[in-house]
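Quick note —
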Amino acid sequence: GFQLTARDITERKRAEEEWKRYEEKLSTLNIYSRNLNIAESIEEIYRITLEAMERTLGFEQASFMVVDKNVLYVADQRGYPEILSLRLPLNEKRGITVKAAKTGRLVLVSDTKKDEAYVEGMPNIRSELAVPIKIGHSVLGVLNVESKRLNAFSEKDRKLLEILASHAATAISNLEHAKNLEAYAREIQ
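Predicted structure written out below.
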């Protein structure tokens, strides 16, 4: 006679593949972080960050928003059919990105139709994820991604975008520090 024990490992294999893809994305983000740290202009930081958001993380629509005085505005974007010229005052009560900038915390909206704070920038957006770009307690801007699908962003997406926002914040800080040192050196000369 024979005795057979069978176990379905399909779920485990799928989880292993998903973890492998996540590790590959982390590794790729490290490459982008090196590029961010040698960026020579703020525009280059915007471009590299958005490229990482699009290519590594696979987000369809992404924007790099900047805080200037008491206004949050789109500095650069990807995936939108037209240029977004949103300028959102930080004293407003509406806006997912405004909420992220004011609280300094990630804001995830799984269904924009059910969130009264949502401000439509583009039609048919159903999910939004906004991650603040911070140095200490100071918010420099917000990385914002949107999707036409409900519940489009996973826990891993949130973590990866937070890592990228941290790298962008460091790059901006380093760029400002280098400019201050150059100005100080010229002053001394």
